[in-house]
Design a protein that fits this description.
Acyl-CoA acyltransferase, acyltransferase activity, transferase, acyltransferase, 286 residues, single chain, Aminopeptidase
Length: 286
Protein backbone atom coordinates (compact mmCIF):
# COMPACT_ATOMS: atom_id res chain seq x y z
CA UNK A 1 0.00 0.00 0.00
CA UNK A 2 1.32 3.45 -0.96
CA UNK A 3 0.44 6.59 0.94
CA UNK A 4 1.53 10.20 0.66
CA UNK A 5 2.12 12.04 3.91
CA UNK A 6 3.95 14.96 5.44
CA UNK A 7 7.60 14.42 6.37
CA UNK A 8 8.23 14.50 10.13
CA UNK A 9 11.31 14.86 12.30
CA UNK A 10 11.50 11.10 12.79
CA UNK A 11 11.74 10.59 9.01
CA UNK A 12 14.80 12.77 8.37
CA UNK A 13 17.49 10.09 8.46
CA UNK A 14 15.56 7.85 6.06
CA UNK A 15 14.75 10.81 3.79
CA UNK A 16 18.45 11.78 3.67
CA UNK A 17 19.31 8.21 2.70
CA UNK A 18 16.68 8.24 -0.07
CA UNK A 19 17.89 11.57 -1.46
CA UNK A 20 21.50 10.39 -1.39
CA UNK A 21 20.52 7.43 -3.55
CA UNK A 22 18.53 9.67 -5.88
CA UNK A 23 21.18 12.38 -6.22
CA UNK A 24 24.56 10.59 -6.06
CA UNK A 25 26.50 13.81 -6.72
CA UNK A 26 25.31 15.09 -3.32
CA UNK A 27 26.64 13.73 -0.05
CA UNK A 28 24.40 12.55 2.75
CA UNK A 29 25.71 15.42 4.89
CA UNK A 30 24.47 17.88 2.26
CA UNK A 31 20.92 16.65 2.76
CA UNK A 32 20.98 16.13 6.50
CA UNK A 33 22.47 19.60 7.12
CA UNK A 34 19.76 21.23 5.01
CA UNK A 35 17.00 19.24 6.71
CA UNK A 36 18.36 20.25 10.10
CA UNK A 37 18.22 23.89 9.05
CA UNK A 38 14.61 23.43 8.02
CA UNK A 39 13.86 21.83 11.38
CA UNK A 40 14.65 25.07 13.25
CA UNK A 41 13.69 27.82 10.79
CA UNK A 42 10.39 29.68 11.05
CA UNK A 43 7.70 28.07 8.87
CA UNK A 44 4.28 29.64 8.21
CA UNK A 45 1.47 28.08 10.22
CA UNK A 46 -0.38 25.12 8.67
CA UNK A 47 2.29 24.46 6.04
CA UNK A 48 4.68 21.48 6.11
CA UNK A 49 8.15 22.12 7.47
CA UNK A 50 10.00 19.69 5.19
CA UNK A 51 7.65 18.57 2.42
CA UNK A 52 5.95 15.28 1.54
CA UNK A 53 6.97 11.67 1.12
CA UNK A 54 5.62 8.53 -0.49
CA UNK A 55 5.66 5.63 1.94
CA UNK A 56 5.53 1.90 1.19
CA UNK A 57 5.61 -0.63 4.01
CA UNK A 58 6.71 2.15 6.42
CA UNK A 59 9.67 2.99 4.19
CA UNK A 60 10.04 6.22 2.17
CA UNK A 61 10.16 5.55 -1.57
CA UNK A 62 9.55 9.08 -2.82
CA UNK A 63 10.13 12.63 -1.62
CA UNK A 64 9.38 16.22 -2.60
CA UNK A 65 11.09 18.81 -0.43
CA UNK A 66 9.34 22.15 0.13
CA UNK A 67 10.45 25.45 1.65
CA UNK A 68 7.57 27.74 2.66
CA UNK A 69 8.26 31.40 3.41
CA UNK A 70 6.00 34.29 4.38
CA UNK A 71 6.77 37.36 2.25
CA UNK A 72 5.68 40.96 1.98
CA UNK A 73 4.10 41.59 -1.44
CA UNK A 74 2.95 45.18 -1.76
CA UNK A 75 2.23 45.51 1.94
CA UNK A 76 0.37 42.21 2.18
CA UNK A 77 1.71 38.91 3.48
CA UNK A 78 1.87 36.14 0.92
CA UNK A 79 3.26 32.61 0.99
CA UNK A 80 5.94 31.38 -1.39
CA UNK A 81 6.84 27.72 -1.71
CA UNK A 82 10.15 26.62 -3.19
CA UNK A 83 9.61 23.19 -4.72
CA UNK A 84 13.00 21.71 -4.11
CA UNK A 85 14.39 18.23 -4.71
CA UNK A 86 12.04 15.57 -6.13
CA UNK A 87 12.87 11.88 -6.27
CA UNK A 88 10.80 8.70 -6.52
CA UNK A 89 12.28 5.24 -6.73
CA UNK A 90 11.82 3.68 -10.15
CA UNK A 91 9.42 0.93 -9.06
CA UNK A 92 7.04 3.58 -7.66
CA UNK A 93 7.26 6.29 -10.35
CA UNK A 94 3.60 5.80 -11.33
CA UNK A 95 2.67 7.23 -7.91
CA UNK A 96 4.79 10.38 -8.36
CA UNK A 97 1.79 12.59 -9.32
CA UNK A 98 0.49 12.08 -5.76
CA UNK A 99 3.39 14.17 -4.49
CA UNK A 100 2.94 17.08 -6.88
CA UNK A 101 -0.83 17.13 -6.46
CA UNK A 102 -0.63 17.35 -2.67
CA UNK A 103 2.27 19.80 -2.66
CA UNK A 104 0.62 22.28 -5.08
CA UNK A 105 -2.95 22.22 -3.82
CA UNK A 106 -3.04 25.76 -2.35
CA UNK A 107 -4.30 28.26 -4.93
CA UNK A 108 -3.18 31.30 -2.91
CA UNK A 109 0.45 30.11 -2.65
CA UNK A 110 3.09 31.08 -5.20
CA UNK A 111 5.15 28.02 -6.14
CA UNK A 112 8.65 28.38 -7.58
CA UNK A 113 11.05 25.94 -9.16
CA UNK A 114 14.48 27.57 -9.33
CA UNK A 115 16.59 24.59 -10.40
CA UNK A 116 14.63 22.62 -13.02
CA UNK A 117 16.58 20.16 -15.14
CA UNK A 118 16.08 20.95 -18.83
CA UNK A 119 14.47 17.59 -19.51
CA UNK A 120 11.70 18.46 -16.99
CA UNK A 121 10.68 21.79 -18.54
CA UNK A 122 7.87 20.37 -20.64
CA UNK A 123 6.38 18.51 -17.67
CA UNK A 124 6.69 21.60 -15.45
CA UNK A 125 4.91 23.78 -18.01
CA UNK A 126 2.17 21.15 -18.33
CA UNK A 127 1.51 21.66 -14.60
CA UNK A 128 0.79 25.35 -15.21
CA UNK A 129 4.21 26.82 -14.41
CA UNK A 130 5.53 29.78 -16.40
CA UNK A 131 9.15 30.92 -16.74
CA UNK A 132 9.96 34.17 -14.96
CA UNK A 133 13.73 34.07 -15.41
CA UNK A 134 15.32 33.07 -18.70
CA UNK A 135 18.99 32.95 -17.78
CA UNK A 136 21.91 34.40 -15.83
CA UNK A 137 23.83 37.60 -16.39
CA UNK A 138 27.46 37.20 -15.35
CA UNK A 139 28.52 40.72 -14.42
CA UNK A 140 32.09 41.90 -13.89
CA UNK A 141 31.61 44.63 -11.29
CA UNK A 142 35.33 45.30 -10.86
CA UNK A 143 35.36 47.25 -14.13
CA UNK A 144 32.47 49.49 -13.08
CA UNK A 145 33.39 52.97 -11.89
CA UNK A 146 33.05 53.11 -8.09
CA UNK A 147 30.94 55.78 -6.43
CA UNK A 148 33.12 58.24 -4.52
CA UNK A 149 33.70 57.30 -0.87
CA UNK A 150 31.29 54.33 -0.95
CA UNK A 151 32.13 51.78 1.74
CA UNK A 152 31.34 48.05 1.84
CA UNK A 153 30.60 46.52 5.24
CA UNK A 154 30.17 42.85 6.13
CA UNK A 155 27.10 41.99 8.22
CA UNK A 156 27.64 39.14 10.68
CA UNK A 157 25.10 36.58 11.80
CA UNK A 158 24.82 38.18 15.24
CA UNK A 159 23.92 41.63 13.85
CA UNK A 160 21.07 43.29 15.73
CA UNK A 161 20.88 46.60 13.89
CA UNK A 162 22.59 48.27 10.93
CA UNK A 163 22.37 52.01 10.47
CA UNK A 164 20.17 52.95 7.52
CA UNK A 165 18.90 49.41 6.96
CA UNK A 166 15.36 48.35 7.82
CA UNK A 167 14.81 45.92 10.67
CA UNK A 168 13.44 43.31 8.25
CA UNK A 169 16.52 43.55 6.03
CA UNK A 170 18.88 43.32 9.02
CA UNK A 171 17.16 40.11 10.12
CA UNK A 172 17.42 38.76 6.56
CA UNK A 173 21.12 39.69 6.29
CA UNK A 174 21.97 38.09 9.63
CA UNK A 175 19.98 34.95 8.88
CA UNK A 176 21.72 34.44 5.55
CA UNK A 177 25.12 35.10 7.09
CA UNK A 178 24.33 32.21 9.44
CA UNK A 179 23.59 30.06 6.37
CA UNK A 180 27.10 30.78 5.10
CA UNK A 181 26.28 33.56 2.65
CA UNK A 182 28.17 36.83 2.36
CA UNK A 183 25.90 39.59 3.66
CA UNK A 184 26.98 43.12 2.78
CA UNK A 185 25.88 46.70 3.13
CA UNK A 186 27.15 49.36 0.73
CA UNK A 187 27.14 52.77 2.38
CA UNK A 188 27.13 55.91 0.26
CA UNK A 189 28.64 59.22 1.31
CA UNK A 190 25.13 60.68 1.73
CA UNK A 191 24.26 58.01 4.31
CA UNK A 192 22.16 55.72 2.13
CA UNK A 193 22.69 52.02 2.81
CA UNK A 194 22.13 49.21 0.29
CA UNK A 195 21.83 45.61 1.53
CA UNK A 196 23.03 42.60 -0.48
CA UNK A 197 23.39 38.85 0.01
CA UNK A 198 25.86 36.90 -2.14
CA UNK A 199 26.79 33.25 -2.25
CA UNK A 200 29.68 31.33 -3.77
CA UNK A 201 28.46 29.94 -7.06
CA UNK A 202 28.67 26.41 -8.31
CA UNK A 203 27.98 25.27 -11.87
CA UNK A 204 28.01 21.50 -12.14
CA UNK A 205 31.20 20.17 -10.61
CA UNK A 206 33.18 23.31 -11.41
CA UNK A 207 33.55 26.16 -8.94
CA UNK A 208 34.13 29.44 -10.74
CA UNK A 209 35.65 32.55 -9.12
CA UNK A 210 32.14 33.97 -8.98
CA UNK A 211 29.30 34.80 -6.62
CA UNK A 212 25.56 34.59 -7.13
CA UNK A 213 23.22 37.38 -6.16
CA UNK A 214 20.85 35.95 -3.57
CA UNK A 215 19.18 39.18 -2.49
CA UNK A 216 19.09 42.87 -3.24
CA UNK A 217 16.04 45.14 -2.99
CA UNK A 218 16.42 46.28 -6.61
CA UNK A 219 18.80 45.54 -9.47
CA UNK A 220 19.27 49.31 -9.76
CA UNK A 221 20.89 49.23 -6.30
CA UNK A 222 23.44 46.73 -7.53
CA UNK A 223 24.20 48.81 -10.62
CA UNK A 224 24.85 51.81 -8.35
CA UNK A 225 27.11 49.81 -6.02
CA UNK A 226 28.76 47.49 -8.54
CA UNK A 227 32.13 49.28 -8.60
CA UNK A 228 32.55 49.20 -4.82
CA UNK A 229 31.36 45.60 -4.52
CA UNK A 230 33.58 44.52 -7.42
CA UNK A 231 36.73 45.88 -5.80
CA UNK A 232 35.73 44.38 -2.46
CA UNK A 233 35.37 40.95 -4.09
CA UNK A 234 38.53 41.21 -6.18
CA UNK A 235 40.52 41.34 -2.95
CA UNK A 236 38.88 38.00 -2.12
CA UNK A 237 39.59 36.37 -5.46
CA UNK A 238 36.11 36.77 -6.97
CA UNK A 239 35.70 38.40 -10.35
CA UNK A 240 32.03 37.97 -11.27
CA UNK A 241 28.53 38.19 -9.80
CA UNK A 242 25.73 36.27 -11.50
CA UNK A 243 22.21 37.70 -11.45
CA UNK A 244 18.90 36.24 -12.55
CA UNK A 245 17.97 38.07 -15.76
CA UNK A 246 15.93 37.95 -18.94
CA UNK A 247 18.61 39.57 -21.08
CA UNK A 248 21.69 41.77 -20.83
CA UNK A 249 21.50 44.32 -18.01
CA UNK A 250 22.12 47.94 -19.07
CA UNK A 251 25.00 49.78 -17.39
CA UNK A 252 26.71 46.57 -16.32
CA UNK A 253 29.61 44.88 -18.07
CA UNK A 254 29.00 41.16 -18.44
CA UNK A 255 27.70 38.19 -20.40
CA UNK A 256 24.12 36.92 -20.55
CA UNK A 257 23.64 33.17 -20.87
CA UNK A 258 20.54 31.09 -21.58
CA UNK A 259 19.15 28.65 -20.59
CA UNK A 260 21.47 28.47 -17.57
CA UNK A 261 19.50 29.60 -14.54
CA UNK A 262 16.00 29.29 -16.00
CA UNK A 263 13.33 29.49 -13.29
CA UNK A 264 9.56 28.89 -13.13
CA UNK A 265 6.62 29.99 -11.01
CA UNK A 266 2.93 29.25 -10.59
CA UNK A 267 0.51 31.26 -8.50
CA UNK A 268 -0.67 34.78 -7.76
CA UNK A 269 2.68 36.60 -7.41
CA UNK A 270 5.41 36.58 -10.05
CA UNK A 271 8.74 36.55 -8.18
CA UNK A 272 11.01 39.46 -8.84
CA UNK A 273 14.53 38.98 -10.09
CA UNK A 274 17.48 39.27 -7.69
CA UNK A 275 15.62 37.68 -4.79
CA UNK A 276 16.50 34.06 -3.99
CA UNK A 277 16.43 34.59 -0.24
CA UNK A 278 15.36 31.65 1.93
CA UNK A 279 15.50 29.35 -1.09
CA UNK A 280 17.06 25.92 -1.52
CA UNK A 281 20.29 27.62 -2.60
CA UNK A 282 20.86 28.92 0.91
CA UNK A 283 19.03 26.29 3.00
CA UNK A 284 20.73 23.32 1.36
CA UNK A 285 23.61 25.04 -0.44
CA UNK A 286 24.76 25.56 -4.03
Amino acid sequence: MIRCREIGIADLDAIADLLTRGFPIRSRNYWINGLRRLSVRETPDSFPRFGYMLEHDRTPVGVLLLIHTARNDGGCTSIRCNLSSWYVELAFRSYAPMLTKVAQRHKDVTYVNISPAQWTWQAIEAQGFRPYCGGLFFSFPGVSRPVKAMRVEVVRQDAQAVEGVSEADVVLLARHAAYGCLSLVCRAIDGRAFPFVLQSMRIGRIRLPAMQMIYCPDVADYIACAGAIGRFLLRRGRISIALDANGPIPNLVGIYREPLGRKYFKGPHCPRLADLSDSELVIYGP
